[in-house]
Amino acid sequence: MDIKQLINFITIVEEGNITKAAQKLHISQPPLSNQLKALEEELGVKLIERGSRKVTLTDVGNLLYKRGKDMVNVFESTLNEVEDFKSGIEGVLKIGAVSTCNQFIPNELISPYAKQYPKVKFELYEGNTYEVVDMIERGIVDIGVVRTPFNSENLCCLNLRTEPMVVVVNKNGEKFGFEYREKIDLKDLDGKPIVIYRRYEKLIMDVLQLNKVKANIYCLNDDSRTTIAWAQAGLAIGIVPKSIIDNSNKEIEVYELDEEELKTQISVAWMENKYLPRSARNLLDMIRNSNF
Q1: Cystine design at 119: which of 45, 90, 173, 240 (Cβ 3.0–4.6 Å)?
Q2: pLDDT tens string 13-35
Q3: Are 202 and 247 in contact (CB under 8 A)?
Q4: Half-sphere exposure of 37 (CA within 13 A, CB side)
């Protein structure tokens, strides 16, 4: 049995039938069927029960599938490590990023890394946190820069920074009674219209309820940039993470919220038990040794 036979067997199992597996492997069906038969003869066991539409694993086939997956992962990881050593500290680092970190990533994360590893290039994939987590799980990106809260199951995480939420209002429109303030107390939001990114709804609502502040949700949306746009239009009070604020925007005023519980974390995440290229491992090492 060689690694190619093992990969083909695993593909048959995961695709559910030989026809689909052959299409995925870009080979014709008869040779793949013959390979499976030859593998069973070599091992002296029946691995698969062939049905009209779907194959079914035997007990020993299930054992080979589970052990085989581990063996293939080790094999592929070893090849990747060999390529790393061949190329040196070069290559492409694929990063998934949420829009609310579009200033933090180049300025504070990548700039010091690029100075240390100038031959590394980057591919940046942007989306909301759910989309970035999906990119990590599907192997589209090596690591993702996301914001809490998110489902961290099967992920390893490093928290980079905790930051407060801020209140955003139109500079030339209604100030909602916030004039001459440096910080806003939660009670100042009582009954006033607010616009928030849907991801933060539970966090914000829980904190408001805990402090007995009446919530008046004017608009829920799917992007913190939308929140800022609605607040800039004077429609409501926006609540967003502090680092998303563009300091060059002269049409808004920003006030910090004086509330310890109303904070988010910027985190870097990657798949647990999956090979990371050397470029990604070096970035994680830099993060661990830095003060973010």
Answers
A1: 90
A2: 888 888 888 888 888 888 888 88
A3: no
A4: 7
Q: What class has domain 164-261? A: alpha beta
- What is the DSSP track for 211-223? TT---EEEEEES-
Q: What is the pTM of this model?
A: 0.61
Which fold would CATH assign to domain 92-161+265-288? D-Maltodextrin-Binding Protein; domain 2 (3.40.190)
User: Quick one: CA torsion of 279, 283, 285, 287, rounded to 10 degrees?
Assistant: 180
| Per-residue pLDDT reduced to its tens digit, 37-47 | 898 899 999 88
- Give start-end residues of each CATH 3.40.190.10 domain in the chain: 92-161+265-288, 164-261
Q: Using DSSP, state whether 245 is helix, strand or coil.
A: coil
Highest CATH level, class, for 3-87: mainly alpha
Helix axes 18-25, 3-15, angle to 10 degrees: 130
